[in-house]
Write a structure and sequence with these properties.
Blueprint: H1 2-12, H2 16-23, H3 30-46, H4 53-72, H5 76-100, E1 110-123, E2 129-138, E3 149-154, E4 167-175, H6 188-194, E5 197-203, E6 208-209, H7 218-233, H8 236-247, H9 255-263, H10 274-293, H11 296-301, H12 304-322, H13 327-344, H14 352-365, H15 373-393, H16 402-429, E7 431-433, H17 436-461, H18 468-490, E8 495-497, H19 505-518, H20 528-540, E9 546-548, E10 555-559, E11 562-565, H21 572-581, H22 588-592, E12 605-607, H23 611-620, E13 626-628, E14 641-643, H24 645-651, E15 654-658, E16 664-668, H25 669-673
Parallel strand pairs: 3-5, 12-13, 13-14
Antiparallel strand pairs: 1-2, 1-4, 2-3, 4-5, 4-6, 7-8, 9-10, 9-15, 10-11, 15-16
Helix pairs in contact: 1-2, 2-5, 3-5, 3-14, 4-5, 7-8, 8-18, 9-18, 10-12, 10-13, 10-17, 12-13, 13-14, 15-16, 15-19, 16-17, 16-19, 17-18, 19-20
Membrane topology: Multi-pass membrane protein
Domain DUF4131: 55-190
Subcellular location: Cell membrane
Length: 680
């Protein structure tokens, strides 16, 4: 009777074709569930307005109703209801996460005493040491209005040596997180919201110790001690790289080394991510199994794979703690834990089901990670490797034997991972390392075979005083990686700079990659269609004709020879972002030295920085002319169009783009950001 009812639903229901297709997905449904959850999260972040409490209640009722329909309908239609319920649940989970991380944001510019506990040390784009503080105290600011965290760059004389857990104080300039540098650009306000950063700034005075008692955890102290030990044992930049690999401290790596690693597509070796966690867990797993295999009695009578996985899992937990538990490391740990868990329960470790489960856990824990490059690149690479090696595993296994098989596997894995992550890296960073495959073929084996095992063995032998030899081996391996990076970066055309695409491109690539990973058989090939469409749209994307910074201190006009900038100095981050998004790798000084272009349709404008000059110009300006200034005008409204600091604080950055009918459209950052909690 139940079977007949299900058949009637399939015949008469509104989702006949879809339900029939979904009915054939038995055993392959987990990737689609993860996809539905991610689509719900993506929909939430794409909304122009934050859902109201009433809307959230409706969403919750929809989840309950769809779940009930899923239980009643147990065929393809039931799975469709389940996907819809998971989609809505993803939207609600993202909204809940937004409310959980909500905290005070500095509403104005602040100058005064800043006191707090150091929770993170890194470097700014200018190379200055940068501290993230929590348990913050600000002079004259009530505790309930004080941000949970602030970030301060140190530009003054040396003071107290910063160390995680120390409570320090200084005098700093603080500002609320800035909006996108251009409409539709990277939304730093949203990023800061989910990092609980309520203010950012800089200090030009020495850092002082506010309390002799460290407030950090034992793990933070251990991380600092290990980083210092590695720097002392391994000289120069190689010791700094070792500290980054083991505990995630990249604050001491020289800028030229970092840039060489980026240009050669080896920057991922500095971030504790899936590669590091995979290499470490794989080394421990293989070592334990190898030792147990020395005894035939144990190897034949006991489940050594399960024992090895049970030992590798605590090692992964320890590495997560020592690395600082960053978002990328949490994601890598979840993926490694899911794989090891699959081994323990007797399932395939590397399967699309395991990748989907890991994605669900990561997204449930941090829904905002979906829109970040780390999540997209990690799961694109992992999913592509699972698909590629799954396809090869059904072919003749002779290629996997011996040294030749190892070389083919290395070449294939580097090529597949590079092709999978390349589009996402290009979209987010506007650059492609053209020799990245060669660089990874030369460097990644050294990282896996020498650097990671040597560092692990050295840390194990450190209490016994026997760490010199393994640390020396790690030093040679890191030195080789740096040499490879510098050689590749110095080659002509090593980096291809690309203009930022339109907003449609990233979702299309995502749809294509998800389809190729979740579908089965030849239907995976359909995923290439949205990818090709994304490439076509990217080729047709045009950059704004004119951009105006949120501060009002910088404007830029695009021409065939590149973007002209109104200033050679000041607003450096904004200028670098514009030029990077243009695919134009020149300095701000060079861009400002270009001849100012004359573009049809653009208004006549002037950027005025002096208050006295502003008063004079506004008295004589004419209708239609734009006056852009970082100052605030409190006088009578002028005849011209005035964008002062007060107006730009409401609109954010501006862009002027040409329309097909020849008109020029003005877009604002606030317009594209929408009315969301993180938009001030």
């Amino acid at each position: 009777m139940a079977a007949r009812d299900d058949a009637m639903v399939l015949q008469n229901g509104p989702f006949v074709t879809v339900a029939t297709a979904l009915h054939g997905l038995r055993g392959f449904r987990m990737p689609w569930i993860a996809t539905a959850f991610g689509c719900g999260i993506g929909t939430y972040f794409a909304l122009p307005v934050e859902p109201s409490h009433a809307a959230t209640a409706v969403f919750a009722l929809a989840i309950c109703a769809l779940s009930l329909l899923t239980w009643i309908s147990r065929d393809g239609v039931g799975f469709l209801y389940l996907l819809l319920a998971v989609f809505v649940f993803g939207l609600v989970a993202a909204q809940m996460r937004t409310a959980i991380v909500a905290g005070p944001v500095m509403p104005f510019r602040y100058y005064g005493a800043v006191e707090g506990r150091i929770v993170k040390i890194d470097r700014s784009a200018s190379g200055a040491v940068r501290l993230t503080l929590d348990r913050v105290r600000l002079d004259g600011i009530a505790p309930e209005r004080t941000p949970r965290r602030v970030r301060v760059s140190l530009h003054g004389p040396e003071g107290t040596e910063p160390r995680p857990g120390l409570r320090v104080m200084t005098t700093a300039h603080l500002s609320p997180p800035a909006g996108p540098t251009e409409p539709g650009g990277f939304d730093f306000q949203r990023h800061a919201w989910f990092d609980s950063l309520g203010a950012l700034g800089y200090s030009r005075v020495p850092l002082l110790l506010a309390s002799e008692r460290a407030e950090g955890s034992a793990v933070a102290g251990a991380r600092y001690a290990i980083a210092q030990a590695l720097r002392n044992a391994i000289p120069e930049e190689r010791g700094q790289v070792a500290a980054a690999i083991v505990v995630g401290d990249r604050s001491g790596i020289p800028d030229d080394v970092t840039e060489a690693l980026r240009a050669s597509n080896l920057a991922h070796l500095l971030a504790i991510s899936g590669l590091h966690m995979g290499l470490l867990v794989g080394f421990v797993f293989a070592s334990v199994r190898g030792v147990l295999a020395l005894s035939p009695r144990i190897a034949l009578a006991y489940p050594t794979r399960i024992w090895a996985a049970c030992i590798a899992l605590p090692v992964a937990v320890a590495y997560l703690a020592l690395s600082g538990g960053g978002i990328a490391t949490q994601r890598a740990f979840v993926m490694a834990a899911v794989m090891l868990g699959a081994v323990i329960v007797g399932r395939r470790a590397l399967s699309m089901r395991s990748v989907a489960i890991a994605a669900l856990i990561v997204l449930a824990w941090r829904p905002e990670s979906l829109i970040g490059p780390g999540f997209q690149m990690s799961f694109a690479a992992t999913g592509a490797l699972v698909v590629a090696f799954g396809w090869l595993s059904n072919r003749d296994p002779k290629w996997r034997r011996g040294v030749i098989g190892w070389g083919i596997a290395l070449l294939l894995s580097s090529a597949v991972a590079g092709l999978a992550t390349g589009p996402f890296a290009a979209i987010h960073f506007n650059r492609v390392g053209q020799y990245g495959l060669l660089a990874n073929l030369l460097a990644v084996p050294m990282m896996g075979a020498i650097v990671m095992p040597s560092l692990l063995i050295g840390l194990i032998l450190w209490p016994l005083g026997l760490q010199e030899l393994p640390f020396w081996c790690a030093e040679q391996g890191i030195g080789w990686i740096i040499v490879v990076a510098e050689w590749i970066a110095a080659l002509d055309g090593s980096v291809l700079h690309l203009p930022a695409p339109s907003w449609h491109v990233l979702p299309l690539f995502g749809i294509g990659f998800v389809w190729m990973g979740a579908a089965a058989g030849r239907t995976r090939l359909y995923g290439a269609i949205p990818c090709f469409l994304a490439i076509i749209l990217w080729a047709q994307s045009e950059r704004p004709m004119m951009l105006v910074s949120e501060s009002g201190g910088l404007a830029g006009i695009q021409s065939e020879g590149g973007r002209w900038l109104s200033r050679a100095k000041g607003d450096g981050f904004t200028a670098a972002s514009w030029l990077e998004n243009d695919g134009d790798p020149v300095s701000q000084e060079m861009a400002a030295a270009r001849d100012r272009p004359s573009v049809a349709g653009l208004p006549s404008f002037r950027v005025v920085r002096s208050s006295a000059e502003l008063k004079t110009i506004l008295a004589d300006c004419v209708a239609g002319e734009w006056i852009i200034t970082p100052r605030v005008w409190d006088g009578d409204p002028p005849r011209c169009v005035l964008y002062d600091a007060k107006a730009l604080s409401r609109t954010g950055a501006l862009s002027l783009t040409g329309e097909p009918d020849g008109a020029v459209r003005v877009r604002t950052s606030r317009e594209l950001q929408g009315q969301r909690p993180w938009v001030r």
